[in-house]
Design a protein that fits this description.
The complex is a heterodimer. By secondary structure, chain A is of the alpha+beta class. Chain A has one domain: Ubiquitin-like (UB roll) (Roll), CATH 3.10.20.30. Chain A is 17% helix and 19% strand. Chain A has a 5-stranded mixed beta sheet with strand order 2-1-5-3-4. Chain A is globular, with a radius of gyration of 12 Å. By secondary structure, chain B is of the alpha+beta class. Chain B has a single domain, classed as Cytochrome p450 (Orthogonal Bundle), CATH 1.10.630.10. Chain B is 46% helix and 9% strand. Chain B has a 6-stranded mixed beta sheet with strand order 1-2-3-11-8-4, with helices on one face. In chain B, strands 5-13-12 form a 3-stranded antiparallel beta sheet. A two-stranded antiparallel ribbon of chain B has the order 6-7. In chain B, β9 and β10 form a beta hairpin. The longest helix of chain B is centred in the middle third of the chain and has 24 residues. The radius of gyration of chain B is 21 Å and the shape is globular. The relative contact order of chain B is 0.18. The chains are: A alpha+beta, B alpha+beta. The interface between A and B is medium-sized, with 22 and 26 residues.
């Protein structure tokens, strides 16, 4: 199963397995990782699963996958950077095995 | 304080009803009796009434009502804050359905605050996630078309279509029963129980409905414990929390809550939308002409036609906008009013499918965000697509005046259609 590393705003890293086809937001929720809220459950109607894709991964992962994601990112609580994504819109594939995402201090 | 879900006890903070039970800390100039959910002005046009709260009332006021006194919040910003701070605005005891004090239980997960809340949500989230509900798409389309077949046959034979009874009611209830693993022949019984519980505005009738629901669900749970299947009732009955099966009280509280949450809300949403579609042919055409935009169309319709409220109880003293809220005070976030906040949604009553995407409050926000939100979106989407494909032109039966039901889920009594 592919692995994802979540690095919180203090630099603390946690690596967990996230099933192919599952999204990076749920990977955090199911594994009890703080720092991702994901309150709408992946419906593109909040912006509480904001994360920053690690510099080594931005090319592979790419930018927002839809106009709705791009618009919603503007509502994110912490600074929006070029590497910002909503983690519910990042679906795990084998190509993303080893993915590293950084979590903002606030989700709202 | 986190509650022990396996050993439920009724809440001890007082319920205030009526003008002689206004607590001392409430300033006289913030007391109102707006008649939310039952007054004649509300019932005449509930969404217009809630939009007008922004002009007529302060952002936070204390409403005195025969249904219980509580603070009302109407601002989008305040709802986001309140609903995202469960340590201040607690869900414990905030769900207004009567229960037998000698056999008390919690509604799970809505009455469970963090940190325990997430353990329960993880049991059912895979079923209700966007990917989870997509598995039901084919079935929902089939059910929608079956109902339209029946409606067309009835109309062809000289009968008439009353939308709420012919489509708005049976579609979501049938889908809900499928998901839960409960039999379709209970459909009309389920609806009448839900109507008594949510629309009677009478605590004795609500209590009676709760007893019937309790007896049926306890039997259904026992049956699933003996004979597991793929449905959600069985999933809950056999789920483990912290490595052990849940207690009988937890299982019952979980299933009972889904029953209450799932039966009436999409029903009311569809009825609201169809009453509006019947009178707005240009918007019907716009929906038909923009199939690629169906998701944002659904989101805007859910904003414009939200159907319910969210209640909380203050777990500590707290000040907002200069208003002193005290521990034990009850609060209602008027979600439709929050969706009409002109600072967030300019010209709020206008349906505009091209609004920039913002957080809508149809499903609340925070840890207790509606778990059925994705199912609701999918049902509304499929209903629009399938209905407009087959019945693109329709209007209200001439002479119809839409009347709204009193109660905690806002929708019209009847929507008679002709075409």
């Amino acid at each position: 199963m592919p692995k994802v590393t979540y690095v919180d705003h203090t630099g603390h890293a946690t690596t967990v397995e996230v099933e192919t086809g599952e999204n990076v937001m749920r990977g955090a929720l199911y594994n009890g990782i703080d720092g991702i809220t994901g309150e709408c459950g992946g419906g593109l109607s909040c912006a509480t699963c904001h994360c920053y894709v690690d510099a080594d991964w931005t090319d592979t992962v790419g930018g927002p996958s839809s106009q709705a994601e791009e618009e919603l990112l503007e509502s994110a609580a912490d600074e929006v950077k070029p590497s910002s994504r909503l983690s519910c819109q990042m679906v795990m594939t084998d190509a993303l095995d080893g993915l590293v995402v950084h979590l903002p201090e606030h989700q709202f | 304080m986190p509650i022990d879900a396996a050993n439920p006890v009724p809440p001890t903070f007082p319920r205030h009803v009526g003008m002689d039970q206004v607590p001392d800390h409430v300033p006289a100039d913030l007391i109102r009796q707006v008649g939310l959910t039952f007054g004649p002005e509300f019932l005449a046009s509930p969404h217009d009434f809630m939009a007008a709260l922004h002009d007529k009332q302060p952002p936070i006021y204390y409403d005195v009502s025969p249904m219980g006194n509580m603070w009302h919040f109407t601002r989008h910003e305040d709802a986001l804050f309140g609903l995202r701070h469960p340590e201040i605005f607690s869900n414990e005891g905030a769900t207004p359905f009567p229960r037998d004090p000698s056999d008390y239980f919690y509604f799970i997960p809505i009455e469970i605050d963090p940190p325990h809340h997430r353990k329960y949500r993880n049991i059912v989230d895979p079923v209700f996630s966007p990917q989870g509900v997509l598995k039901l798409e084919g079935l929902i389309r089939k059910r929608a078309n079956d109902l339209i077949d029946e409606i067309e046959a009835k109309v062809a034979a000289g009968g008439s279509c009353e939308f709420t009874e012919d489509f708005g009611r049976p579609l979501p209830v049938a889908v809900f029963l499928d998901i839960m693993g409960l039999p379709q022949d209970m459909r009309d019984t389920f609806v009448s129980w839900a109507m008594e519980l949510l629309h009677s505005n009478d605590r004795a009738i609500m209590g009676g409905a709760m007893q019937k629901i309790t007896a049926y669900l306890k039997e259904a749970i026992a049956e699933k414990q003996a004979n597991p299947d793929d449905g959600v009732v069985s999933r809950i009955a056999h789920a483990q929390v912290d490595g052990a099966l849940m207690s009988e009280k937890e299982i019952f509280g979980f299933v009972c809550f889904l029953f209450i949450a799932g039966l009436d809300t999409v029903f009311a949403t569809l009825n609201n939308i169809w009453a509006w579609l019947a009178e707005n042919p240009e918007k019907r055409q716009e929906i038909i002409d923009r199939p690629q935009d169906i998701d944002k169309i659904v989101e805007e319709l859910l904003r414009r036609w939200s159907v319910t409220f969210s209640g909380r109880v203050l777990d500590k003293d707290h000040e907002m906008r200069g208003v002193q809220l005290k521990k034990g005070d009850r609060v209602t976030f008027i979600l439709p009013a929050c969706n009409f906040d002109p600072e967030v949604f300019p010209d709020p009553l206008t349906v505009d499918f091209d609004r920039p995407r913002k957080t809508i409050l149809a499903f609340t926000v925070g840890v207790h965000s509606c778990m059925g939100g994705h199912l609701a979106r999918l049902e509304v989407k499929i209903a629009l697509q399938e209905w407009l494909k087959r019945i693109p032109n329709f209007e209200l039966k001439p002479g119809t005046r839409i009347e709204y039901r009193p109660g905690g889920v806002i929708g019209p009594e009847e929507v008679p259609l002709v075409w």
